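Sequence in, structure out. Go.
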Amino acid sequence: NSFSGKVATVTLGKARKGNAAEAMWQDEFNQKHYLLVEPEEEGQEFTQGTQVLLIEKLQNSWLAVKFKPL
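Output:
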């Protein structure tokens, strides 16, 4: 999917493996895209404001990892 590799920000909820939270990313046309994300690894947690890198589309959400800027 074309969202893979994009950086999104968790906007609502707390994401854990198997329990997705709402996130948003803004494209080059300033269009906001809302989607559900959950951590790729067990034991990780994404809270509101966390930036995540979208990895893989699941049936109802995206697997993601915490974004670490260089």
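Check: The mean pLDDT is 95. The beta strands are 7-12, 15-16, 21-26, 32-39, 45-46, 51-57, 62-66.
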